[in-house]
Design a protein that fits this description.
Length: about 350
């Protein structure tokens, strides 16, 4: 089959890891006889430097003509002084907004060969962590009304958290559907003891569940309790469903239980299943261009793309197998290297090459 992919490495280590993600795609193409055509574009700080804007109109049009977007990371200290709308991150926000990428999938799982990297106790890790955090990505406080105004104590800054039943329902349906393909359980996370928007969230999730997904197990959890459970008892979670801000925080916590944020991939998709695939780590400017970033999150994002965007389940499984195999064979970038017997300290490129070589039928 033939697919067109917008490739947007962005800034910092986004560039290093995206190169290896494309190597994995090329290997898939060779092994399975597909054709991937790449449209490489600048978004983020690099685009500000080249064109004076974090994203060009033309890039949005090109993305629209593609079957999926592969994204690296955007941002860096060089552009930190800019006002919010001109910052590199606005390029990513424009992609999320333009394509209505409301459903953010952030899987976190502990790889067998990285068990010792988890900061959690062995007795907790041994119960396994394999969860899918589903975060609403286009509603809530990050996209709500915001500004500064005169208040009781002088000037104040404000951001509004607001959810419509429509927004909750569409992301909840995705969560229930994904739970059906996994272990059949959804934990919906809110703060309904304090927030009106969370009451709307909880009522809507319950209504959609009772009407159309009674076969899926549904549990509600307050976000503070969920944060504790993630640290003490993460194996209880299958699908976690939550708002934009809670999901932002909990996905970092879920991610770190696996030992390195350098291992975590994510997808942001819309109602037509069009999406952007990216590692969840940022640009890590301190190690950018040094060839030591871990490319496995970006390669994992390719695995998600093959499955979700292209329906290539076998190919996606081959990427997963390759990641497991390269770890099993001892290859470790510095973020996951522990100086244990059999470990091979690897560069970004070596990790990418060795992973690609393990993508086989
Ligand atoms: C993330 C990031 C972004 C978000 C920031 C950069 C706005 O933290 O993808 O988790 O919260 O959406
Ligand atoms: Mn975040």
């Amino acid at each position: 089959m033939e697919f067109k992919i917008a490739v947007i490495p962005g800034d910092g280590i986004g560039v290093d890891v995206t190169r290896e993600a494309v190597r994995a795609l090329d290997q898939i193409a060779g092994v399975y006889g597909h054709t991937f055509r790449y449209e490489k574009r600048l978004v983020g700080g690099c685009c500000i430097d080249a064109f004076g804007t974090p994203i060009q109109e033309e890039t949005l049009k090109i993305c629209e003509s593609c079957d999926a977007i592969l994204f690296g990371a955007a941002g860096g200290p060089k552009w930190d002084h800019l006002p919010r709308k001109d910052r590199p991150e606005s390029g990513l926000a424009a992609l999320r907004r333009t394509f209505n990428l409301f459903c953010n999938l952030r899987p976190a799982k502990i790889y067998e060969d990285l068990k010792d990297n988890s900061p959690l106790k062995a007795e907790v890790v041994n119960k396994g962590v394999d969860l899918m955090l589903i975060r609403d990505l286009t509603g809530g406080i990050y996209f709500g009304e915001k500004g500064t105004r005169q208040g009781k104590y002088g000037v104040e800054g404000y951001d509004v958290e607001c959810y419509s039943a429509f927004e909750v329902e569409r992301v909840a349906r995705r969560a229930f559907e994904i739970a059906r393909t996994r272990r059949g359980s959804v934990t919906s996370i809110d703060k309904s003891n304090a927030l009106e928007s969370s009451r709307m969230w909880r009522e809507t999730v319950t209504r959609v569940h009772d009407a159309d997904y009674p076969d899926v197990e549904l549990t509600h959890l307050l976000v503070d309790k969920a944060a504790m459970e993630l640290a003490c008892n993460p194996s209880r979670f299958d699908v976690m469903l939550t708002t934009s801000i809670f999901g932002d925080i909990l996905s970092d916590e879920a991610g770190v239980t696996t030992g390195s944020v350098g291992m975590l991939a994510s997808a942001a998709i819309n109602d037509k299943n069009f999406g952007l695939y990216e590692p969840i780590h940022g640009t890590a400017p301190d190690i950018a261009g040094k060839g030591i970033a871990n490319p496995l999150a970006a390669i994992g994002a390719v695995g998600m793309m093959l499955d979700i965007a292209f329906g290539l389940k076998e190919e996606s499984a081959a990427v997963d197998r390759a990641i497991n195999a390269v770890l099993h064979d001892g290859y470790r970038t510095p973020d996951i290297y522990r100086d244990a017997p059999g470990q091979i300290r690897s560069t970004t490129e070596e990790m990418g090459v060795q992973t690609a070589a393990r993508i086989t039928k």
